[in-house]
Each structure stands twice: as C-alpha cells, then as structure tokens.
Request: fold
Amino acid sequence: MMKIVYKITYPNGKIYIGKDLTDSINYFGSADSTVIAQDFTREERKHFTITREILFESDDTTEINKKECMLIKEFKSNNPAIGYNQWPKCKDR
Reply:
C-alpha cells in the first residue's frame, strides 16, 4: 500500500504537513482544530476550500516518517505564522 506525505493549504495561506499511511482520499490530517478555528471568523467558517497536495509517496514507512519531518522543517509549517504543525517545535515559538 502506498504511503504519502501531503500538504494542506487553508484559505488564509497557512499550511499543515502530514502523513497518511493508508493513502485515504478522505484524510485531511490531525491538525489541532482549536488552533485553526482561532484564525477564522464565524462568517469565514461558513464556506471555505482547502487543498491537499501529495508531496511524497513511498511504500516504506520509515522513509515516510523521515520525509514528513524534513518537509515540516523545509516548509516551516511548525512556525505559527506559517502553519499549523505543532512539532517539531519551532525555534521562533
């Protein structure tokens, strides 16, 4: 079964990098909903679109785990000004 690392982009431009070991078309990550909700007004929450882009594919779980961490650092999605990843901790926090 193919495993993936993906990037989700929210309407405010912030991103979330995650992995899916099942390659489910309906999986959109485990980002903290309360953190994301703080960035959107009630009106903005009524209708918005997110994009999920597959950044990397592999059959090897170890490779996927390493690539996810590398891409979080590369995209800086663990910086609260850029994204919603909570780890690895950003030095700017």
Remarks:
- The mean pLDDT is 93.
- Residues 3-75 form one domain.
- The helical segments are 33-37, 42-45, 61-75.
- The two ends are 37 Å apart (CA to CA).
